[in-house]
Amino acid sequence: MPDTAPPVAASDAPHASTTAVRQLGAQGSQEPHETLGLTRRWRARCEAGLSERSHRLLDRVLAARGLGVASEADAFLEPTLRDLHDPGLLPGLERAAERLLAALDAGEPIVIYGDYDVDGITASAILYHTLTALARDRAAQVRTYVPHRIDEGYGLNAEALGQLAREGARVVVSVDCGVTAVAEAAAAREQGLDLIITDHHNPPPPGSPWPDAFSVVHPRAPGSVYPFAELCGAGVAYKLAWRLCTMRTGERRVSPELRALLLDALALAALGTIADIVPLVGENRVIARHGLRRVRSTRLIGLNALIEASSLASDKINEEDVGFRLAPRLNAAGRLGHADEAVELLTTASAARAHEIAARLSHQNDERRRVERSIAERASELASDAGMTGTDRRAIVLADASWHPGVVGIVCSRLVERFSRPTILLQRREDGLASGSARSVPGLSVHEALCECADLLETFGGHDMAAGLKLRLDRLDAFTERFTEACNRRLTPERLVPSLTYDCVARVEELSPGEVGDLARLAPFGRENPPVRLRLAPARLIAPAKTFGQRGDHLDLRLGTSDRAVRVVGWRWAEKLASLPRSGLVEAVVEPKLSTWTGRPAVEPVLVDLRLCEG
To answer: How confident is the model at residue 54 (pLDDT cuts 50, 70, 90)?
Structure first.
């Protein structure tokens, strides 16, 4: 389907199976090696039938990822908008859409209550643009509300809902939050609010009550038949927006104006999907792939201002641009300021105001990075001193009064990368509480581990890989011990050994611009669809390695055989220079990349790890 086509109902076309994609986690043999990088073990995704001399490189990578069947590979490489599922299959969505349209027609004030991260910000913007476009009276009362990260904390809160009711709101629709807000939903009902909850986070455990809201839209609600459970908050909001448009028009195919609106909304959904690190398979892959194509041509004033402030001049914006340029700026507002500015940027800001906000977000992001580095250095020291980096204690739990609660989540991720274990970082507060964030490692649900500690916590919520929590300081020691015990049961010492996974073995001669360009068809890359990594068969260092870059931080290696040589770039590898011989055979794990720095495509793999061959 061409990019300009509108989303269609699921019945219009068969869906691509995601079963094979989910085999990605299956690992092949393990090989312990002492390497020159941070990694000590390399392992293949799948070794059966993947000789470096069989098939083209793309075929071998696809087979390693469980996509060896041609029809499945084609569906994965060329996802279409027809692969999106019918939004009406989402539990609670039809009832939610009907109520929102009725509120628009009756002139009832609607408040979109969103989370303060990129997922919540983009989800808020999706619904704001959709509802205002569908209002028969263009003066319809639709506004957004974002809680302050520090003053109010994550998710719905009864005080804010009460204030919104006193200000005249009649319908509140949450995005990216609310599925565990049982008390808050009851408070909303007492205030006369019709509360619609749209969320994707882990729902209440079996046997626990769900919020008594007007409607709860969640792909994993009890009895759900929705085919894909991994949508992010912006993805759920996009499905609601799509159904609002078709319900308003009474047709499955909407007008050109609404089609353009939904494509702009798809760009926002792609930002939320990539930033929230949900699996980039199934529907998420469709949203990310087609939404990224729309980002550069978006009509949204604020998004264009953000792109400009991020110095993204390329014709195409990819997932790395979102992850390292756009998303951190949007997140910076909620981390160091108030996320309502980021929502304003993507909704109501004029051109002048959009550029003002985008510039401020860039400044806040620079400050966020400085604070992040400081906390990461201190937290690493404390974790080592407390014995939390060995094999006996397989979790890190730390608290400090000086740590900014808006930044600790990012630092958690840094410590997880470094120490390969779940990490919780908290800010000690003057009111006797500690609040912060948790991050996990693949295969361990931090949400499940927190559920085992629920009686020690004031509040918590999230999903398998990330969560937020709050507890009393006098319970911190008990919580630390119980959470650590929960992680010790789930993680063996062997899983604490840093490792990397590569797709298949390749020869330097295979790294032609055409072959490497074919591998880019697997993008966008992310969780459950990681960047392609190749283990290069032994190649010779054909020239002494040298450093480059303004501060000499990076390494330039020339690897080759008798038939071909290639430049391999080691970002921030300069400190390894003294460990490298001037010549000899090496094996490397690389991410194949094409560079256009010289004006034409040239293969320049990025170094992931390196080891010397004996002899």
So the answer is: low
- Dig out the tokens for 60 from the structure: 């071998």
Residue with the larger pLDDT of the pair 123 and 36:
123
Q: What is the mean pLDDT of residues 315-323?
A: 91
In this structure, the number of other CB atoms found within 10 A of the CB of residue 445 comes to 17
Cα 460 from Cα 204, distance rounded (Å): 11
As a whole number of angstroms, the distance between CA 65 and CA 49 comes to 13
Distance CA 393, CA 413 (A): 18
Q: Does residue 132 surpass a pLDDT of 70?
A: yes
Q: How far apart are CA 234 and CA 346, in angstroms?
A: 13
Residue 25 has pLDDT above 50, yes or no: no
The owner of tokens 């909303």 is: 188
Instruction: Please name each of the domains of the chain with its CATH number.
Output: 27-65+499-612 (2.40.50.460), 386-496 (3.10.310.30)
Element (H, E) at 565: strand 565-570
Tell me the C-alpha distance between 202 and 450, whole Å. Answer: 12
Q: Is the dihedral of CA 507, 511, 514, 518 positive or negative?
A: positive
State the average pLDDT over residues 157-177.
96
Task: Identify each DSSP E strand in 47-184 by its residue range.
Answer: 110-114, 142-145, 171-175
Contact 461, 155 (CB under 8 A): yes
Geometric angle at alpha carbon 529, from 27 and 116, rounded to 5°: 125
Strands 584-591 and 534-548: antiparallel
Are the CB atoms for 195 and 214 separated by under 8 Å?
A: yes
57 closest CA partner among 501, 515, 533, 529: 515
Q: What CA–CA distance (Å, rounded) separates 168 from 472? A: 35
Count, in order, helices (H) and strands (E) of the chain. Answer: 18, 21
Lookup result for tokens 């072959």: 515
Average pLDDT over residues 118-137: 94
Average pLDDT for residues 502-527, to the nearest whole number? 94
Assess contact for 244 and 101: CB atoms under 8 A: yes
What distances in angstroms separate CA 346 from CA 239, 265, 358, one per listed residue? Answer: 19, 11, 10
| pTM score | 0.86
Cis peptide bond upstream of 524, omega within 30 = yes
The amino acid at residue 19 is T
| Residue pLDDT, tens place only, 246-274 | 999 998 889 999 999 999 999 999 999 99
Measured CA to CA, the distance from residue 426 to residue 450 in angstroms comes to 14
Strands 142-145 and 110-114: parallel
At residue 563, does pLDDT exceed 90? Answer: no
